Fold these 2 entries.
Entry 1:
Amino acid sequence: MLQYMGSSSYWHETSRHVPDPALAGRHDVDVAIVGGGYTGLWTAYQLREAEPSMKIAVIEREMIGFGASGRNGGFAMTLLDMSLAHLRRNRGDAAAKAAHEAVASSVREMGETIAVHGIDCEWKHGGLMVVATNNGQQARIDADLEAAEALGLEGFTRLSRDETQAEVHSPTYVGGLREDHCAVLHPAKLARGLAKVVGKLGATVFEGTSVDAIEEAGDKIHVTCPKGDVYADQVVLATNAWARQSPWFKRKVTPLYTYIAMTEPLSDEQWASVGWDSHCGIEDKRNFVHYYRRTLDGRILWGGSDGIIHYGGKIAPRFDRNTAILERLTGTFRETFPQLGDVRFTHHWGGPVAITVNFLPMFGTLLEGRMHYGLGYNGHGVAPSHTGGKILCDKVLGKTSELTELCFVDSKEPTLPPEPLCWIGAEITRRSLLRQDAQFAENKASAEMDPLLLRVMKKLG
Ligand SMILES: Cc1cc2nc3c(=O)[nH]c(=O)nc-3n(C[C@H](O)[C@H](O)[C@H](O)COP(=O)(O)OP(=O)(O)OC[C@H]3O[C@@H](n4cnc5c(N)ncnc54)[C@H](O)[C@@H]3O)c2cc1C
């Protein structure tokens, strides 16, 4: 029987937050940043570090970390695209290496910034263990290790079946790899701690303030909010999944809901039966990955398994939980850790991530150089949004750098079809990916993606 006691996001519950005031009246700034998640906050941070006198307003509709940044699994990891092997195959060696190394640097730099400013966000740099639970997944791990070696990347180690199972005791593991560049953290505490730092550095954070329109007004950009207006030289759009609601990104991103279940704290005996002495994050190699990690108070966060796209890219509070997916999550948890058969689940929540056609984030500039955007992390934005903050900072300052040359900056972004084709296509893709996951589990399929899907994706971008 499902023992779900019902609660909201554990991260929100365990992070006290006194919101900043809403915006009222007229504000003239150098840069207005729309969206109070990691992308907006890291951009504000980088800008104030680079130009301490710059006037910056961060405008968040709900509260800091309300979006994916306050709800995620808390893995700061290097993953871009579907996998390292996929990134290399699609973008080539030089671009894949540069992109991977930029995000790996971000993992290091995030740790440094968190330490320097004393942000209490439970940062643990314990690496990532990627596990295979069948031969198809093992082939994907082999391909990633081959790509890492071909690109000369450091920090990847192959793990045998015995080594993987010795680290974490699950009978389902057939092999794995360890990647050093990964940390786990408390996502809402990071977002809110970062907002405080940004405020101390001199940016102004407004919460409970919806940006209703962004328009050119002479040599300024006019940002309209319910009780006030901002006139800015430049704007940064950092609304990720919500960008689908803006005219510029209707056909560029689609929100996908991903979900998490969290257990009660495990007893010492239960932990002894699992092993897992470190704070390494764990992901498997399904298309719809399972991602899981420990919390500081001894729970297991268990996420992934499936994802839902709603018609028209709709985002609404009623989608924040999904009983069917919760059942699936608890089921796969018990398959993975049969020794924890009676552990209870105390929290369940989800949130929207932004999916792009080519599975890469997108950074660029609109409104004749005066509005920059960074979004579309495909569910892996914790560390890439730090890289994104650096890219957007360079863009605002008009600088070209190694970062502004990355393959997902100012690139030709593929377009989604209009509704209802978008939703139908997304649903066909989802089912096909889930079918392949199921076939892998029965050791039936080859390790390649469905060839039809690959052809469609190639055509789109
Ligand atoms: C359940 C879940 C688990 C995840 N797990 C991981 C993980 O373990 N590792 C990982 O790397 N990634 C993970 N992700 C993805 C990661 O959280 C995101 O990629 C990242 O947080 C994106 O940050 P962001 O600032 O771009 O967007 P968001 O954090 O979504 O912020 C966008 C903000 O814009 C605000 N906004 C929208 N419209 C307006 C408007 N008109 N006016 C003002 N404000 C507006 C929203 O309220 C929101 O706060 C997960 C996501 C989810 C949902």
Entry 2:
Amino acid sequence: MSQAHPPLSAQATRRLTRDTEPYLSCDDCFDQVDGYVEALLADPDHDLPAMRTHLAGCTACAEEARSLIMLVAEQDGLDPASAGRRLGAE
Ligand SMILES: [Zn+2]
């Protein structure tokens, strides 16, 4: 008799969060930070609002992302400066 609440599709979630502050938990952030850092290094204009917002407000994750940028940049012979700037790390 009870009707299960249909899970939100990724698209619906995006639509819901677009106009408000994108919210990401530290766990979500941790799951995505590798890909985010690599994308930033490949393209400094890459944007992932939820990640950007979380990293702007969470020192622990920002620190993690920053050291990851340095690590990946060094491994791949890339310049970490522009990607680091995207994190607000001058
Ligand atoms: Zn965090």
